[in-house]
Write a structure and sequence with these properties.
The protein has 25 helices and ten strands. By secondary structure, the chain is α/β, with parallel strands linked by helices.
Length: about 600
């Protein structure tokens, strides 16, 4: 007897053996058990998912000597004849070669005759969408009102080509693609029955290449078994099927992200040297990028990607230095290469130039990074960062201390002047502040008891600090209540935490503050201390002070954080030790916008003025 291939030897013989189509098997079993068998069915789905096999099982269940029954006996002459394809009552017709109206006329004459052995005469028309329009029209009347002993079963991979007049006369069943786990489990069962000891990774590679088709998986498995024998390993499966090694994908990704075009060409040369199909390599690299993208997403598990724990950890490590936008751009280039590979005059040149373009790409930069609001994390992947110690929640949003601050949720426009802010007029209903500790440059309604020692920042005639500091801010008034109760001396140590809390309410203007530190100047006897915000560069310095309202808002925020009764002055400076730092006064709004026109556009985008 000739060898029977795995796809035929392990073809399901009953509804219980069907893989991945349990919903269809259960429906057909219930229909047979309740006597509600339809006169026409349409089985649609991709190749190799069990359409024709299910049609044969249904025909066997209808014509079994013990039936109609949902569990055919497999031993009676009718069941054996259907399994062997020799039954006179089950006729399989190829719709591609019998698609004319004359063939349908012959079929209409045959349906009049009663079955010879079983209870039903079953017509299985495969690839029914290949019938001509005239053939479909000739079949309409017979399909709608066939004899009681006739059952039509149509199978097609393209249900969209079947006329609606046919679809309205049949019961339609959509066959799903079989999952990789379902194919792998079926292959493991077959290996146990055949006495084969495979590696689980080898079966997973076969299941992935089968792309949802059980028939393809069995054909691939047959090929690998003929090459590797009983000891079926992953390396042998890759060699037999021409599947590239994962190492090649890892090397290519490292070279591309390092902008190393030379080593990228070496990897492509190795692919050609191993005799691999370049289209197969590009398809595999596209799937690799897909796994790379999803491995960095929260909630994705190794089982969801069909990967082992160790390999999943390697993918997350490789994806740590990339952004999602980088991976998506790589995947788009790979997709374009695959689409143009079919018509490329020189396929290798086409692929090499595409990968060279990929290696030349710069990393994706977000708008927050351009505006200095986002500080890149060391790992480059915010989704994979560890939670704060103890699982603490992010700091609460800053609550404004006055109704006016609540109305200023949006970032202010780049308008106004850059001169020193005049402190707001005192509330007539409030008591005047005590003389002791009042701001040295603030007018005191009480008579001056006498000359006081001069303070370097006490001269109200100075619009700017004597050296390189920016205009001083009005001294903070004592806070009425303070949840934190910080002292002014401790402000320099907790400045990063204060900036992040401030950013909850002012995300746009807090960006430059992330590039700053807080400095406490030397106190002068009898005068309040001076807190200076020292920026790392003039760009962040100018960007924050472009609107004088930012100084007032920051001062109000700090006033709410310090202990009641604390008094301080607020100034702004640029770190003179920073390389390339140029100390200069802020420009006028028109000059700043002329030099940086993108600022106005970004402000309009942030405030929602530009919709598209």
């Amino acid at each position: 007897m000739s060898y029977l291939v795995m796809a035929r030897k392990w073809r399901p013989k009953n509804f219980e053996e069907m893989v991945g189509q349990e919903h269809i098997a259960q429906t057909l079993r219930n229909a047979i058990a309740s006597g509600r068998v339809s006169h026409a069915y349409l089985f649609t789905g991709t190749r190799g998912v069990g359409k024709t096999t299910s049609a044969r099982i249904l025909a066997k269940a209808l014509n079994c000597k013990n039936g109609p029954t949902a569990t055919p006996c497999e031993v009676c002459e009718n069941c054996v004849a259907v399994s062997q394809g020799s039954s006179m009552d089950v006729l399989e017709i190829d719709g591609a070669s019998n698609n004319s109206v004359d063939n349908i006329r012959d079929l209409r004459e045959q349906v009049k005759y009663a079955p010879m052995q079983g209870a039903y005469k079953v017509y299985i028309i495969d690839e029914v969408h290949m019938l001509s329009k005239a053939a479909f029209n000739a079949l309409l009347k017979t399909l709608e009102e066939p004899p009681a002993h006739v059952v039509f079963i149509f199978a097609t991979t393209e249900s969209g080509k079947v006329p609606h007049t046919i679809l309205s006369r049949v019961q339609r069943f959509d066959f799903k693609r079989i999952s990789e786990a379902g194919i792998r489990d079926r292959l493991e069962y077959i290996c146990a029955q055949e006495g084969i000891t495979p590696e689980r990774e080898a079966l997973e590679a076969i299941a992935r290449k089968a792309d949802g088709s059980m028939r393809d998986a069995l054909s691939l498995f047959d090929r690998v078994y003929a090459f590797a024998g009983s000891a079926l390993t992953l390396d042998l499966a890759r060699k037999a099927l021409g599947i590239p090694e994962e190492r090649l994908f890892d090397d290519l990704l490292r070279h591309v992200t390092a902008h190393d075009a030379g080593r990228t060409f070496q990897t492509i040369d190795e692919v050609y040297g191993q005799g691999l199909e370049i289209s197969e390599f590009l398809s595999g690299f596209g799937e690799y990028l897909r796994d790379l993208l999803f491995s960095r997403q929260p909630g994705v598990t190794p089982a969801l990607l069909g990967r082992g724990e160790s390999r999943f950890a390697e993918l997350r490590a490789l994806a740590g230095d990339l952004r999602d936008g980088d991976i998506l751009r790589f995947a788009k280039i790979v997709s374009d290469l695959l689409a143009g590979l079919k018509t490329a005059a020189h396929p290798r040149l086409w692929v090499e130039l595409g990968l060279a373009r990929m290696a030349a790409l710069d990393r994706v930069v977000t708008l927050s990074q351009l505006m200095g609001q986002e500080v890149p994390s060391p790992a480059g992947n915010p989704a994979l960062q560890a939670a704060p110690p103890g699982g603490s929640a992010p700091p609460p949003a800053f609550e404004p201390s006055s109704p006016d601050a609540e109305e200023k949720k949006k970032s202010p426009e780049l308008v106004g002047h850059f001169e020193s802010e005049i402190p707001p007029a005192p509330d007539p209903h409030e008591a005047p502040p005590p003389a002791h500790g009042s701001p040295p440059w603030e007018e005191d309604p009480a008579p001056d008891p006498g000359p006081a020692p001069p303070h370097p920042y006490s001269d109200p005639s100075l619009d700017r600090f004597p050296t390189h500091a920016e205009p001083k801010e009005a001294l903070a008034e004592p806070a009425s209540s303070s949840p934190a109760g910080l002292s002014v001396d401790a402000a320099t140590t907790v400045w990063p935490e204060l900036v992040e809390e401030y950013a909850q309410d002012k995300p746009f203007t807090a960006g430059p503050l992330r590039h700053s530190r807080l400095r406490l100047t030397e106190k002068v006897a009898g005068d309040p201390p001076l807190l200076e915000v020292v920026f790392s560069g003039p760009h962040q310095h100018d960007l924050f002070l472009a609107d004088p309202e930012n100084r007032k808002t920051l001062s109000a925020f700090l006033r709410a954080k310090f202990t009641p009764g604390a008094a301080f002055g607020l100034g702004f400076d640029v770190d003179a030790s920073a390389e390339g730092a140029v100390l200069h006064a802020p420009e006028s709004p028109s000059a700043l916008l002329q030099r940086e026109p993108i600022l106005q556009t970004l402000m309009q985008l942030f405030e929602g003025r530009i919709l598209n």
